[in-house]
Every structure is written in structure tokens, then in C-alpha cells.
Amino acid sequence: MKQTARIISIHAADTSGVCSMLYELGGMVVVHDASGCNSTYSTHDEPRWYRQDSMIYISALTETDAILGNDEKLISDVVSAANDLSPRFIAVCGAPVPLLAGTDFDAIAAEIEARSGVPTFGLHTSGMNSYLVGASEALEAVVNRFCAAPVPLTAEPSANILGATPLDFSVLGAVDSVREWLEAAGFRVVSCMAMDGTLDDIGQAGSAHVNLVVSSCGLAAAELLRARFGTPWVAGVPVGEKFPAILADALREAAKSGANALPCAARSISGSAPIPAVVGEAVFSGSLAKAIELDAGRPCRVLCPLEADDRLLAPCDVRIADEDAAADAFAQSSGVIADPMYAPVCPAETPFLRLPHEAFSGRCYRKESLNLINRPLPWRL
Amino acid sequence: MLKLAVYGKGGIGKSTVTSNLAAAFARLGKNVIQIGCDPKADSTINLLGGDPVIPVMNYLREHDREPDDVAEISKTGFGGVLCIETGGPTPGLGCAGRGIITTFSLLEELKLFERRKPDVVLYDVLGDVVCGGFAAPIREGYASQVLIVTSGEKMALYAANNIYTAVQNFRDRGYATVRGIVMNRRNVPGEEEKVRAFADANGLPVVADIPRSDDINRFEDAGRTVVEGDPGLDVSRRFLALAELLLNEEAERNP
Questions:
Q1: How far apart, in Å, are the Cα atoms of A37 and each of A13, A69, A106, A169, B210?
Q2: N or C: which end of chain A has fewer CB within 10 A?
């Protein structure tokens, strides 16, 4: 059946992407919904929920409020909460009911900002897209709002990390490893968007020489920083043994030339023999596929089930729209590296390697999560 | 880009005013888009020789997918006016307001304005702002000015007041503002005094005075606007004068 998931899971929704991206930045996020998306987010999509405070709220939208278009209740509740909590910013975003009611979040944000004096933006989530769409819009909105003032370039080589959330990187040290690798490669990290960093760090993002886009949801912000400060971006995650050096060279070259680079998509295959496939978000999966090509000497493709800019995928990669497409693609692969919840649609004769992806299986396999940053891959392919 | 939304009581002549304005802008050499935002989907028919365009909602119903190109949901009418109709759901079912929002999202995805680069966009909207969907044409990024069409009839003025109040309620949201009143005469007793009293009470100008004219009906029977059919008629010149006024104001705002 098309566009259905009878057997496997689905990815976290755009509302979770917004919350995840903004979690650590000192802002208040309000999802305009009855409540269900909040419990899904806090239970499955947010590993920081019980150890780190944040201001993530649900509006408790009622049927009557939706029918009556009672935006005033939402606005006054948010303004009241903002007066109590003094957030650095406010983000309001929607779920399926506001989508159907046509709620105008830009207008609501304007009214909240006028009354509260707190920078506020509306985000156009609907619960109908993946976490990447929400996280991308949220990060772009933050950069748009807080990276407006001109800042001088740092004296030393420097970089921002764009697009890091636990939904793609979990909380087991992968982002710390990316940061350590960048510093070892000679780049001071100006900001990490948006884990283990602050809104003030992000305000200095324009001073970096280059931006490292570590997931699809960092690309829009990278494009905005390029338009505003001329900063080039490089898409890739330093996984495996050999790819990190290539990625570091790409960062140095981009900082020097000003040109963007996509080493995660610099892959090609020849012939039609089955090859291994990595399933997941485009930048990470593309980087892993490249690492497999370099470290194991095996060409590898990405099977991408998520929204991704065409530039982030190699010509050999395949978009998989639903579980039927996934099953077909798995059957044509010599092996599959994917979240364990994909295993039921992988043919028994196709080797399946488990690589938990928090955005797909939540906390279920967190203990199996792997930190692949700048180290040998754990599989024999 | 001049972006106007035309509101008014059902049957008051919004589509007649809007399509004649579109024809007038076209006669003045402008690149025009008219978007009908009424489930009846009859806004643009008199720009199209009586041969209607497929409404967006009908397209979605028939094809069960979104169009790949604006050409699939538009037709070019008199003077090159690009005609689009949102249409509506199956009568008695669905949500017409949501249909308008869906259509606007679709037109954004198809990059209508970026590719077409219109000088003028006209939104012809259902009489009452009954829900969020019918306010969508005046949201930020869409129409920046509203024209309210009314006669001197009591219920037309009542609807005009409701529309004005609704727009005023949105003033903190960055929505469109009311530019003025188009008096579409029905020749009721004391008509001009009644309309001007309403306009004055709300600080609104009467930007056009359209006489009741059999010529409008005569050309509409042939699927044409009077501006297309005979631009020299007094009623046609009223539409052309309004178009010139609005264009001149836009040129002053954005030289």
C-alpha cells in the first residue's frame, strides 16, 4: 500500500523537530494542540526531558476553541506565561487541528510579540511532515532573528555546527565527538546548533569562517548565513576512519575559496551488482556511505525515507517513500544498515545491520546507539 | 505589486466589479492575476468568454493529486488576465475555508508570483468572513488592501460593516487594510446618502461609484466584461478610473 506504514514505524513529526532544535536555547516553545504530540515528544523523542529543564508547552487546544477560532485564549495564555518565565524568545507552532482550521501562526506571533515584548516567531508545523521540516524551520527562524547584526570574522579558523539534535545524534557523545574532531582539525567552534550551546553563541555565528551542516535540518540556516555573511557551508558528518580527513580538507578549502561543498554526496557506483545501503537522514547516511566506500572499499548508496534537498543526495541514492519502497530497495541491496525497526521489512537473505535512529524508534534502542564519529566502523561489510 | 481583495455581501456584484477591474488593469497594460475565492467558482467566467477554468478543488477531486504546473489550474482570459478559481468541496461536505488556504499554499508551492511576476493580483472573496479561510486573502503576503463592494440596501451595508469590523479586528496582525468602498448602485431610494453615511462613519472613502447598467448585463450574457466589450461607455470608464487611481497610488508607494 502506498504512503502507509503497516509494519514499520514512522519518523518523529515536525513538532518534535521544532522542540528538539529549540530545547536548549532558553526560549519558550508552544505547540498549539490538544496534547497528544507533547506526550509523544516527551516520551519518545526527547532524551533530555528528565535531566534538563526547558520551556516546552502544549496549548491544550479544545474542540470549542478550534471551532470558535479562539486565538485570543492562546495569545493571552502565552503572554501570561512569558511574563512569568521571561524566555529569550517564543515559538508557536501547530499540529493537525490548527492546520485544518487554518490558524495563522505568523499573525499570532506578531500579536504575542507586540504584547509581551519578547521576540516571537510562528512556525508552520502541521504534524504531517517529518522532524527535519520542523527542526529546519525552527533553526532558520532563530538564525534569522538572532544573527542579524554584523560581526567580524574570528582571527583563527572557526566553524559552526548546524543541524545537531538528539533525534539524529542521540545524547551518547556523538555531537561532543564532532566538536572535538573539529577543534583537532584546527577549527574553533563558534556555535553548535543546537546542542550544548547557547543562544548567545548562535548570535556570534556570523563570525565563523565556515559552517558544517551535519543534517538536512541545518541546510536552510546555512543558506541564510551564507546570504547574510557570505559564510560557505560544507555538508557531512565525520564518521569512520578516512572520511573525517576528507571532510576537514573540504572545510579548509571552503573557508579559503568561499565555495560550498557536499562531500557526503560525492559518491558514485559502477555496474548493477547489489551494493550495501544505508537508510536514514541524507547527510549522516551519505557520510556513512562514503565512509564505507573509503574504509571498507565497498561502494554504498543511501536509501532516504525523509525530506532532503536534492543536492544532499548522490545520483546513486534512492528516495524511499514508504515501507513497500523500502522493502523493494532492501531486496536489491547486498546489505542494509538501518534502524532496528526496519528489520521486519528486510528480506531474510539480506544481511541487516542495526543502527538505531532516535527519530525513528525513539528510546527503544538507545542502549544500542553507536558513536561512529572519527573512529573505525564496527561492521564487516 | 498591487494586491487587492474584494469583499461584499453575496450577490452584490463582487465578481462583476473584480473582473471589470481586472479587465481595466489589463487595458492599462498590466500583467494581472485574478483568483476567485468562492466555492461557486464563477468569479472569472466573464474574463473567459463564458468558458470557465477548472477550479483547484475540482482538480484535486478529479486527479487525487496536486497539479505540477499552474497551467493545469488556470486559464488566460481577456487582456492576458490569468484566471484561477479555488472552487469548493462537495456541497454539504468538507471545508470551503480550508480549500482557500490549500489553494494559496499550492500556488506558493508552484511559485506563481515568482514565475508570473504580476503587476496586479485580485482576490474575489465570498461575501462573509465566516472563518479563517475566508480571511486568508488578507493575511500578510497576500492582499494588502481591501475594497468593500456595497449598494445602499440595508443588508449590503450590514455585510459591509461586518467585513470592515472583521478587518479592523485583525489590525494588530499585519493584515490588509480597507482601502475604500465601491458603491455598486441598485438604485434604491437615498442610496448615495446611505453609502456615504456608512463610509463617513468609518472614515472610508468611496473610491468608485458604479451606476446600475444594462450594458454590464448585456456583455455578461456574452461572457464578457463591459470593460472588454465597450471601454468607451461611462460605466467602463468608472472601472478604468478606479484602476488608474489604485495604480497611481501603488506607484507612489513603490516608485
A1: 8, 20, 21, 21, 53
A2: N
A3 touches chain B (CB under 8 A): no
Nearest to B95 among A100, A104, A111 (CB): A100
How many angstroms separate the CA of residue A103 from the nearest CA in chain B?
7
Closest Cα in chain A, distance from residue B152 (Å): 31
Residue with cell 494588502: B144
Please tell me the distance from the alpha carbon of residue A124 to that of residue A137, in angstroms, as a whole number.
8
The C-alpha atoms of residue A55 and residue A49 are separated, in whole angstroms, by 10
What lies within 8 Å, CB to CB, of B173 at 6+ separation is: A104, A107, A108, A110, A111, B139, B140
Query: Which of A101, A106, A111 lies closest to B140 in CB terms?
Result: A106
Distances (CA, A) of A197 to A67, A100, A149, A193, B122: 40, 36, 19, 7, 47
Least Cα distance to B156 among B14, B10, B37, B21 occurs for B10
More confident residue, A148 or B234: B234
Whether chain B has a CB inside 8 Å of the CB on A107: the answer is yes
Partner-chain contact B139 A110, CB within 8 Å: no
Q: Please, what is the end-to-end C-alpha distance for chain A in angstroms? A: 32
**Contacting residues of A for B175, CB less than 8 Å apart:** 107
Query: Is the confidence metric ipTM above 0.85 for this complex?
Result: no
How many Å is the Cα radius of gyration of chain A?
A: 21
Domains of chain B: 2-253 (3.40.50.300)
- The Cα B163–Cα B8 span in angstroms is 7
The whole-number average pLDDT for the span B161-185 is: 91
CB atoms B139 and A69 under 8 Å:
no
Cβ contact, residue pair B174, A104, below 8 Å: no
Is there a contact between B132 and A111 if contact means CB atoms under 8 Å apart? no
Q: What are phi and psi of A218, to 5 degrees?
A: -95, -10
* Contact (CB, 8 A) for B51 and B224: no
User: Does the CB of A101 have a partner CB in chain B at under 8 Å?
Assistant: yes
Dump pLDDT digits (tens) for A175-230: 999 999 999 999 999 999 999 999 999 999 999 999 999 999 999 999 999 999 99
**Domains of chain A, start order:** 14-129 (3.40.50.1980), 158-263 (3.40.50.1980), 265-368 (3.40.50.720)
Note whether B174 contacts A107, CB cutoff 8 Å.
Answer: yes
Instruction: List the beta bridge partners of residue A94.
Output: A32
Look up the pTM and report it.
Answer: 0.86
* B131: nearest CB among A69, A106, A108: A69
Catalytic residue positions of B, numbered = 9, 14, 40, 128
Contact call for A104 and B139, based on CB within 8 A: yes
pLDDT tops 80 at residue B129:
no
